[in-house]
Write a structure and sequence with these properties.
The protein is mainly α and 153 residues long. It has one domain. The two termini are 49 Å apart. The relative contact order is 0.10.
């Protein structure tokens, strides 16, 4: 038959149980706090890198817009100068037939130049778009990595 515990033994056993529970709870709290702090640091690092990626993307987009503007300006200037030169040549022509041939030649070359410029602008826009979104695309995989490391921890 089991011997009944004295009041002192009961108090010592309860004290030990409370101390063990407190120690276990304290260790769990510390471990969870460290885990949360590590996750917070990863999230801050992700946010900083994402902001840098957006700044880089904005810079690339700005340079692309500037290049596009310069291309359009140069083409417009060249087109206006060509139109003026053609108008002078048509006005100086000696016959209607000569004026018609000059105007036809000008229209053909202007159309070809326009198509070439459209192609150039399209290629420029495509290249700029790819370069602009490249830094941002890398952030998607970085986010997946942050979430997976937070789950694993």
């Amino acid at each position: 038959m089991a011997k009944a515990k004295t009041a002192g033994e009961k108090i010592n056993g309860t004290t030990e149980t409370i101390e063990t529970a407190f120690k276990t709870g304290s260790e769990a709290l510390k471990a969870n706090f460290e885990k949360a702090a590590k996750g917070y640091e990863q999230l801050l690092g992700f946010s900083k890198d994402t902001a840098e990626a957006y700044v880089k993307a904005a810079n690339v987009a700005g340079k692309g817009a500037e290049t596009l503007h310069n291309e359009i300006y140069a083409f417009s200037k060249q087109s206006i100068e060509g139109s003026i030169a053609n108008a002078k040549a048509v006005m100086a022509s000696k016959s209607v037939h000569e004026a018609f041939e000059l105007q036809t030649g000008f229209a053909k070359s202007a159309f070809e130049a326009y198509i070439a410029q459209l192609t150039k602008v399209g290629e420029l826009m495509t290249a700029t778009s790819k370069e602009t979104f490249a830094p941002i695309q890398g952030r998607v995989q970085a986010w997946v990595d942050v979430v997976q490391s937070a789950r694993a921890a």
